[in-house]
Amino acid sequence: MLELTLNRVDKRFSSKKAVNDISARLTNGVYGLLGANGAGKTTLMRMICGVLNPTSGTIQMNGQEIGRMGERYRDLLGYLPQDFGYYPDFSAQEFLWYVGSLKGLTINDSKRRAQELLHTVALQDVARKKIRTFSGGMKHRLGIAQAMLNDPSVLVLDEPTAGLDPKERVRFRNLIADLGRDKIVILSTHIVSDVEYIADQILVMKQGGLLMTGTVEQLTDTMKGCVWLCRIQAEMVEDWNNRYCVSNLRNEGDEVELRIVSTEKPISNAASVEPTLEDFYLYHFQDEPT
Ligand SMILES: Nc1ncnc2c1ncn2[C@@H]1O[C@H](COP(=O)(O)OP(=O)(O)O)[C@@H](O)[C@H]1O
Ligand SMILES: [Mg+2]
Known about the structure:
This protein is of the alpha/beta class. 33% of the residues lie in helices and 30% in strands. A hairpin with a 2-residue loop joins β12 and β13 (255-261). It starts with a strand and ends in a 5-residue tail after the last helix. The mean pLDDT is 92.
């Protein structure tokens, strides 16, 4: 069993506190780091990958501080940065061979792993095609493949679904769900549906801190009794939008059915409904940028 522990991790950039007092214990499984833009997800991931040092606090892998482990930690780690650079003139396989050599794999190992991973991410048919001809989704899958070249125990993926179309999103989810069995997989996103089905645990970040950690069920349970369906006249919608956190809206003739997240019953005929993770997110992030 792997164990990654964050103990009161802080990161300050001059006066700006990007990450604020985060503690967590991560074992095998898929973790979703969910938060609005600017919440501190990338900064936290860069510290987990040893690219940035915490201002204070410690990060340990199986009880050892990662900064002291050096090469031994990097050998355990796979990382897809948010702003990952590709080499457009490389073919997919050349790119993986190149990354393999950077990671210290022998040429033979690089070639063998590259071929396996191209299958894993379903790019085997375009292995010899140049990256410049790839769609966003194909590039992302190649990015995931490069992060997995050294068969990492800790796989960190920063916004891996950004720019993917719905079909590519589903494919990506299926790929990740399989990996959590023998690894710690951490992926960040500001899109609820990306983590709703595949994350064993969700870490919700807000303004540098951890707002809440739990399974989807644990998080949605905190909204029980706070989600309502109500019907109102169409001309009232704007007013209600200003007064309440509206998570969905459906036109029904002259009337509109609103889904509202509110600790108080908004109108006498409102029906209480089961909360979703989307409701949870909207409620906590209604004033945040997306
Ligand atoms: N190198 C840096 N120097 C100064 N401020 C930074 C730096 N990196 C990030 N920040 C700030 O820290 C906050 C968190 O950023 P980031 O970790 O990129 O958030 P996220 O990935 O959740 O969008 C933001 O306000 C951002 O502007
Ligand atoms: Mg980011």
